[in-house]
Amino acid sequence: MRVAATTATHTLKMMSNEDRLLLLCQMVDGEKCVSDFEELLDIRQPTLSQQLGVLRNAGLVNTRRDGKRIYYSLASDEVLQLLQLLYALYCPRDFKTDNTEHLNAN
């Protein structure tokens, strides 16, 4: 049980930063690159790179290189399920994004 608590605590700590949580939410509907995040979230590149590095080092996201671009995606179904729960609890019912359809599909 302690191992599970340690894992959960680690994941929740990574999600407790607003920028990191927003980045993870954008990955719910598929992989994104830094320019996608900049456009969607209005977060500047240095902050994006720093927070994406934290998420990658924590094992919450996977990366894939395509030429000069690095694409980021969620690393596990557990992270996806946690994001779905947070969405259900905290996002207004009338809030519509590209993520809404995917979040409600599972």
TrEMBL record:
Keywords noted in UniProt:
DNA-binding, Transcription, Transcription regulation
Q: Would you say which domain of life the source belongs to?
A: Bacteria
A Pfam entry, by short name: HTH_5
**Keyword DNA-binding on this protein?**
yes
Question: Which residue range or ranges hold the HTH arsR-type domain?
Answer: 1-94
Name-wise, this protein is Metalloregulator ArsR/SmtB family transcription factor
- Organism equals Deefgea chitinilytica
